[in-house]
Amino acid sequence: MRSQKLRNLDLNLLVVLDVLLEEQHVSRAAERLAMSQPAVSRALARLRTMLGDPLLVRTSAGFVLSSRAQLVRQELDVALRDIERVIEPPDFDPATDDSLIRITGLDMEIGLYIPQLIKRIRREAPNMRFEIVRQENDSFPMLENDEVHFSLSGLAPLSAQHSLHRRQIDEMDVVCLMAESHPLAQGNLTMEAYAAQPHGLVSITGHGPGSMEHVLAQHKLTRTVALRLAGFTSVADFLEGSTLIFTLPARIAEKIAIGRKLCIRRLPEPLVAERVKFFIYWHQRYHHDPKIRWIREHFHHVAT
């Protein structure tokens, strides 16, 4: 615990003391500090009481420093510089920064945005390092526990909302992804036919309904989820040659379908839901960090 004297200290007095010891003259110190002479005199009186020393001793030639003041002057400049370093924002120079930045998100979502982000950042910050951290279940506790700096997600946090910040980086429609050989790959796709098919679902937790269940319920329809996956990487392998349908954000479906025998179809019009929004999340502890603020600005440019 700090001493009672330090706890009661007005730091502004140290600034006044620093100038007084340099000028050794109350009027000149007042002018430099943009204070009135009486105010500086009152501050000097408080300093004398606090330190138990006259500090400035009057002589026929003017004021001189007491022996205690000479000792204080040697240490005060260093102390004030240390205080300035504590209260000033940390320096951040992209050209020399070698920080390790940790990012989490689902595999395909990371692939859509983060490679472009890193390429862009490394043009200005060539020594900055990155780690893509595997997402286990909900990513938001990873932010809360300081395991990662950023989380890429299309979801909203269920807890700790007050301590998280976010910025939208993309928005897109939801589409159906199925095999080219699927009976519904051609022709009219009705919501009844859509609901009757076996469905695949990408679910972070592996349990609970998907958002489409709520949309179908509005039309008194249900669907059977025949397959749940914890990520997007193997979706194409399960779709090719099967009758499964995955309902996915459009850009993710397009990325999965590259080089595969898959078909992308629009949802039946009555089932078209709100567009999916992707956000980058970060914790309040880093909200004012100049490095993290700088990286956040680069997320503006990663969506295509």
UniProtKB/TrEMBL annotation:
Keywords: DNA-binding, Transcription, Transcription regulation. The keyword Transcription applies. SUPFAM superfamilies: Periplasmic binding protein-like II, Winged helix' DNA-binding domain. It holds the Pfam family LysR_substrate. One of its GO terms (molecular function) is DNA-binding transcription factor activity. The keyword Transcription regulation applies. Residues 9-66 form the HTH lysR-type domain. It comes from the Bacteria. Belongs to the LysR transcriptional regulatory family. This is LysR family transcriptional regulator. It comes from Aliidiomarina haloalkalitolerans. The lineage of its organism: Bacteria, Pseudomonadati, Pseudomonadota, Gammaproteobacteria, Alteromonadales.
